[in-house]
Amino acid sequence: MANVVQDPKQRPQAVLGDFSKPNPLVTFTIEDVAFVYGSKWKQRYWKKQGDDYYVLPAQWDIQSKTWRPYHVQPNTDWWVPHYPEAQEQRPTGPLCDGCHSVNYNITTKTVTEWNVGCERCHGPGAAHVAKPVAATIVNPARLDDTRSNDVCIQCHSQGQPRENPKQGQYYDWPVGYSVGDRLADVWRLEEHKLGATTFTHWPEGSAHKNRMQGNDFVASRMYAKGVRCWACHDPHGTGRPAELVLPGNEVCAQCHGPQLQAGPRGTLEQHTHHRSDSAGSACVSCHMPQIAQTIAAVNVRSHTFRFVSPTMTDLYGVPNPCTSCHAGKSTAWAVEAMRAWTNVSPWRVE
Question: Which residue range(s) make up the domain with 273?
Fold first, then answer.
């Protein structure tokens, strides 16, 4: 379970931001904070006002260990025009809480529990507690490919409810979705115009920002072949980065290898043209580049699994893994290097 939202009064060690020194961005104290949100890339701070919560105007960049402003700007998220300009007047209920709680009630603004608990992915559990058999609970593994992946995509995607507003509020999460339903009945993914760089997308269609793993994934060959999110990630936890089911390349090698239909053929070094113990031979380096922004210069990995060629950088500006890793080298250098790879078609280079 993801413990993204935590009460600093119950767990003071959850506070990562440095409140010990004055900072002009931090116009609040830790005593104002009802919940902290995030522990990996960034941490934001929620204040309770009335029966709702509001995000305070500074966030902690965890990797850089510095404060940064938090304010969702115009011409970014689709919902911005529907809310006041002041960040502290934009409630988390319609904009965040549906994905960071279980059973958020849009009328009473109450939850069964904060964070991603069992019922977030398995549906109502009372009948299962009374009679703990398979028939009394939803198991995503027994759903079809679409409905199974929808369990994750409900929150790991950028989109809009098909019916908006509800009760006078515009929601940024799929109100009305229940595990086992078809998510597309209540939720549509953010649209993209090919060739345009937007807040959400690179020109060739890859995610430009975080929380778009689902947008990427549904456009992938993996998704089309019936691969499910839990083939790579275990939501119950593994202790590995991203809760991977196996370490590093072993995740990919479950399906990809010289003796398997999906390939690739030959050894790892023949495929990557890098030493087997180098970052260049990590599958994710080329097939899941870090091009989706989460905060400042911190990016998360693409989930299309497509190799972004240096030529795509020249044409559309989307970063490619070659020159992202080989800093100071040009796209022309990368293209020439790959032309020498006799096991790669030149048509895939340009």
Answer: 195-307
Report if residue 58 sits inside a domain.
no
Q: Amino acid letter at 331?
A: T
CA angle 309, 288, 311 (to 5 degrees): 10
Residue appearing with tokens 């080329």:
286
Query: Is residue 163 one of the residues assigned to a domain?
Result: no
**Section 190-211 average pLDDT:** 96
With respect to residue 78, please indicate whether it lies within any of the assigned structural domains. Answer: no
The mean pLDDT of 196-203, rounded to a whole number, is 96
Tell me how many domains the chain contains: 1
pTM: 0.95
